[in-house]
Amino acid sequence: MFNSVPREEVYRKVLHGFVIVLPLGVFYGPNIFAVERSFFLLLSLGMLLYSLLTEFIRFRYPPFGRWFFATFGSMLREEEKTQISGASYMAGATFLCAWLSTISESFAACSCISLTLFILGDAAAALVGKAMGRIRIGKKTLEGAIACFLLCVVLAYWVFPILPDFLEKWGGVFYFWQAACVALMISVLELFPVQTGKVRWNDNLYVPVVVTFIAAVIR
């Protein structure tokens, strides 16, 4: 009934789990450190530039590329060995969400919940899909998408409303239909990657941004 999940996939998703400090930092950092949200926008830009510089060096300078592969290769998917990694796309999404958070406090709440749910929902989809996925949809599975949806609903409806300041910045009550809508959009967009022509967009980049706008509309 259950398939074995590759160890590198587990490591990859555990690492992704730690990445939730990014959206939480963007949301709570300005209050904790008494700085403007633009400060964290600059921090996220620095992180993105550092990540892209690392990608550039590993592709252009073989000695560094060999070290990088020996150190982190087990967590890279096959296509990431010759292309930009998902981590850099996630850094890009964090920067874009940090930029959106500077628009208003409600956008900050929308960015936080969208990016956090995507990070954890994507991890659930991958692990459940590898372990018990049977119904394949492209390179992903229906079971993984259902796991993503259920986890996102639980977190959105029962966890986020009790986080400090979230409801105040969200703008009031967080209804179940709103939680279900956000969770559904994350699950669907994660399941069906967007492709324009020969270019297949990385969901780590665009899903949190698109869902941030959707959350802003329904709030």
Category from helices, strands and their pairing: mainly alpha
Number of strands: 4
Question: How do the helices and strands follow one another from N- to C-terminus?
Answer: HHHHHHEEHHHEEH
Query: How much β-strand is present in the residues?
Result: under 5%
What would the average pLDDT be, to the nearest integer? Answer: 89
Number of helices: 10
Main sheet: strands, sense, barrel: 2 strands, antiparallel
N- to C-terminal distance: 40 Å
List keywords for this structure.
single chain; about 220 residues; mainly alpha; two-stranded antiparallel sheet; 10 helices; 4 strands; globular
Explain briefly what this protein structure is:
The chain has ten helices and four strands.
Task: Describe the structure in your own words.
With 219 residues, the chain is mainly α. The protein contains ten helices and four strands, in the order H-H-H-H-H-H-E-E-H-H-H-E-E-H. The protein has one domain (7-218). The strands form two sheets. A two-stranded antiparallel sheet has the order 1-2. It has a two-stranded antiparallel ribbon with strand order 3-4. Strand 3 (195-196) and strand 4 (199-200) form a beta hairpin. The mean pLDDT is 89.
List the helices and strands and how they pair.
Layout: H1 7-18, H2 21-33, H3 37-60, H4 62-72, H5 86-101, H6 105-132, E1 136-137, E2 140-141, H7 142-159, H8 166-170, H9 176-191, E3 195-196, E4 199-200, H10 203-218
Antiparallel strand pairs: 1-2, 3-4
